[in-house]
Design goal:
Number of domains: 2
Number of strands: 0
Helix content: 40-55%
Order of helices and strands: HHHHHHHH
Structural class: mainly alpha
Radius of gyration: 32 Å
Length: about 210
């Protein structure tokens, strides 16, 4: 009796030990043509293990990559695809560059600061005024998300002036932003559900038989 614990580590456990033994047998076949034919048979068996992936692009290509990996890249056959190389198997992905600059107001976020910088570059006119109004209303929504209370428009105007380095200076007497109560009401609105499991009994005897 052969214990699986003594058979060595599975390189790709999702295929099981039988497939790995087939690959090992394929490596020991001396004739190259016969070895290639055996490899194709193994690929068909591997594909049958995951029939729901057959319609995915490059599925066959991935199977041949896995075959090469399970053979420790020692299977000498005529591959129908350019399979992965051992040197490229464990290459770390490139590091994603993250900005480390400090966000002035966390509740507004970095994206809004970028929007303000973009609005500053616009030429004076209706488009710029409309964009600034949208930004100011968005700032008010963001402020109320973090601070569950009414906020005065002058606070938003002051913050906008600070974030734009005084390049956007609005008049609080003429600017009309969304009402705080309207924003808070939308946030508190409950979406109705038809799930009866969420219904509570009207009295203590409702669920009693």
């Amino acid at each position: 009796m052969e214990y699986t614990t003594l058979s060595g580590k599975l390189i790709l456990p999702e295929y099981g030990r039988n497939i790995q033994q087939m690959v090992k047998h394929c490596q020991n076949i001396e004739d190259r043509t016969e070895r290639t034919r055996c490899a194709k048979t193994i690929i068909n068996i591997m594909g049958n293990l995951f029939p729901y992936l057959r319609d995915i692009n490059d599925f066959k290509h991935k199977l041949w990559d896995h075959l090469a990996i399970m053979s420790d890249f020692k299977l000498d056959i005529d591959y129908p695809y350019e399979v992965v190389k051992a040197d490229n198997l464990y290459i770390k992905p490139a590091r994603i560059p993250y900005k480390i600059s400090r966000i002035k107001y966390m509740h507004y976020g970095r994206t809004l600061e970028q929007m303000i910088d973009k609005a500053v570059t616009y030429e004076d006119g209706e488009n710029k005024d409309a964009l600034i109004l949208l930004i100011a209303n968005h700032m008010k929504k963001s402020y109320l998300t973090w601070n569950k209370e009414v906020v005065d428009d002058r606070k938003i105007i002051d913050d906008l002036r600070f974030l734009s380095d005084s390049k956007i200076d609005l008049n609080p007497d003429t600017l009309k932003l969304m009402e705080s109560k309207d924003i808070l009401t939308k946030k508190k609105r409950i979406i109705p559900t038809n799930n009866q499991n969420n219904r509570r009994p009207q009295n203590n005897n409702q669920w009693k038989k």
